[in-house]
Amino acid sequence: MLIVMKPNASEEQVNQIVIFIKDKGFDAHISQGEINTIIGAVGGKTIDTRNIELFEGVQEVIKITSSYKLASRMFQPEDTVIKVKDVEIGGEEFSLMAGPCTVESLEQIEITANKLKNMGVRILRGGAFKPRTSPYAFQGLGEEGLMIMRQVADKYNMLVVSEVMEISQIPLLVKYADILQVGARNMQNFNLVRELGYINKPVMLKRGLSATIQEWLMSAEYIMAGGNRDVILCERGIRTFENATRNTLDISAIPVIKKISHLPIIADPSHGTGLRDKVAPMSRAAIAAGADGIMVEVHHSPETALCDGAQSLYPEQFEKLIKDLKIIAPVVGKKL
Ligand code: PEP
Ligand code: MN
């Protein structure tokens, strides 16, 4: 249920409602819009909404029928803009997140970050904990990998986005990363996403391999219900019957999400297609469809990459792609 306050409602009037609904077993989440304050009442028992409509300062009470509430555009009509240090994600910004699939060495991250920074990239990606299909494949450098990411990102004034695979890794990721990534395989790890609701760093939630948009938003809701409103969605391709590409990047999910949710959405055409030559066209499609950014795997030497070399761009290819995206950005009202 959403309680929309009148434009001139006082803080006192908002507080009275919060006390009332909390007493009825609801959690109160306040969203300060440009004109109205909106109180989201989540949980609790069914109550007669007229009891709330009678309070001073209330404009209207809206029942939300969708199962995700805090993630919905009804609760917050304005786009969420996430500010991390001096970088903004969402709104008018088009974000570039790039780097190797996995951290392999200090030298590798140094070479890559140096090139990316010169292209204007502010968010460095690189996994230290890798969810690999095979237990025999490289599993990541763990804390050492995170230390490398932090050290190099600080040198180039970049942010670090890196994956958290389980609850026990949260403190390490909070220590070294700026944005915690939840991988596709963990989207419905409800224990993990619930815990991420209690941290004060943004979470980038990748869409599960076979998750519907509704299920994806429900996982975002888990994080938000814990108090962490800084959730970034990432469309990374879903499993379909098609096997010409590794996954099917669901471009249509971008405008669908934009309509029903205020959360920023990033496209990952690297995992979405699995093929280097498909990354640029799908990135162009993603920005044109309204994405708030892309996350792309870039490796200085893809032939020798320990993970996902075939879908990693050479730095020069990424540089060319950025030039193309800069041409499209103004058409869709984005700054790049
Ligand atoms: C990744 O981005 O490193 C990754 C493992 O992606 P996904 O979870 O989408 O497979
Ligand atoms: Mn990868």
Mean of residue pLDDT?
96
Which spans have pLDDT < 50 for at least 5 consecutive residues?
none
* Terminus-to-terminus distance: 37 Å
Order of helices and strands: EHEEHEEEEHEHEHEHEHEHEHHEH
Query: C-alpha Rg, in Å?
Result: 21 Å
Provide the list of bound ligands, each named once.
Answer: phosphoenolpyruvate, manganese (II) ion
Q: Any idea what the CATH superfamily of the largest domain is called?
A: Aldolase class I
CATH class of the largest domain: Alpha Beta
* Silhouette: elongated
Indicate the proportion of strand residues: 15-25%
User: What is the level-2 CATH architecture name of the largest domain?
Assistant: Alpha-Beta Barrel
| Helix/strand/pairing category | alpha/beta
Main sheet: strand order: 7-8-9-10-11-12-13-14
Helix content: 25-40%
Largest sheet: 8 strands, parallel, barrel
In total, how many domains does the architecture comprise?
2
The count of helical stretches stands at 11
Structure summary:
Helices cover 33% and strands 19% of the residues.
Main traits of this protein?
336 residues; alpha/beta; Alpha-Beta Plaits; TIM Barrel; 2 domains; eight-stranded parallel beta barrel; four-stranded antiparallel beta sheet; 14 strands; elongated; binds phosphoenolpyruvate; binds manganese (II) ion
